[in-house]
Amino acid sequence: MNNNRQNQYKGPIRAIFTGISDLFRRSGNELNLNSLPMLNGKKVLITGSSSGLGLATAIELAKRGAEVIMAVRSGIPEKGEEVKRKSGSEKIHMVYTDLFDLKALKILPSKIKEQFGTLDIIICNAAIVTKTSRQVKEGLDEMFLVNYFAKFLLINEFIDGNVLNTNGDQKPRIIFVTSESHRNPEDFDWEGFGKYQPYGINKAVSQYGYYKLLLLTMANELSRRLNNDGKTNCSVFALCPGPVNSNIAREAPAIFQPLLKIVFFLFFRSPKKASSPVIYLSASQDMEGIPIDYLFLMNRKPMDPKAVDPENGRRLWEISEKLRDRINQR
Questions:
Q1: What's the alpha-carbon Rg for the chain, to the nearest Å?
Q2: pTM of this prediction?
Q3: Which of 24, 95, 140, 202 is spaced 20 to 30 Å from 101 by Cα?
Q4: Stronger pLDDT, 8 or 135, i.e. the higher one
């Protein structure tokens, strides 16, 4: 990826205009939602589903017959009732999930399995963009925790706890909502991994892209580990939904909020429209048996080579496990 593309996400203003321009440069060979099968009998867990893209995804999957488990920190029970009302389905559940509480995340999968049984689809959607760095009690950066590390911990607990349904008519699917900004970082900061480093608003967007690079690198390594016997045991998918008219920029300075609301409304996609690639990856029969794939909007697109490199994946996985073990020993 050339330096021009990398520089396009290095500040909040550049990132906004890059997102808008990406919408106008879309390929004509888009996938579509026509003829997708219903998801009757499928159990889907969605993190960060009380607003924005996650909420729209919950509604659309419920319309398709899925039993939806909303893993959220807020909006209980009113957002669940909204999903029921808009989807016409009563198969909606809400589970309090705090991605900042690592001890609670460790036992969450067993609670899910005990209450609902095994899952067919897990959608890791929750994400944040903070205006500056913030340190959580474990000494980690808040965006690092929510956008990458909590997902690593949670997915491993789901796998180790046998919470994925491996006996269904289709293979289970794990779906990560990521970002094209994963292409922005020039390299990995292996020495600084997990270490809190202060940053301001101008660097916050580039840090967001870096954590998305970590997430996609982890997704590739996860697929290699789950599907290392020559067959697909669990599909691992990722996507960038493009710019979404959501509240992800709620921490932007107050002076810019009115302008951002106008720009988001006029140029960004509605959460319902932006959910299309998530719905496709969840339901499409064409995705059955594919070990890993990435969609940008509704087009297949190669991930940044750094995310696909097996050596990067192995190294990231190992240092993530070491960080997890250090935290567990405290």
A1: 19
A2: 0.89
A3: 202
A4: 135
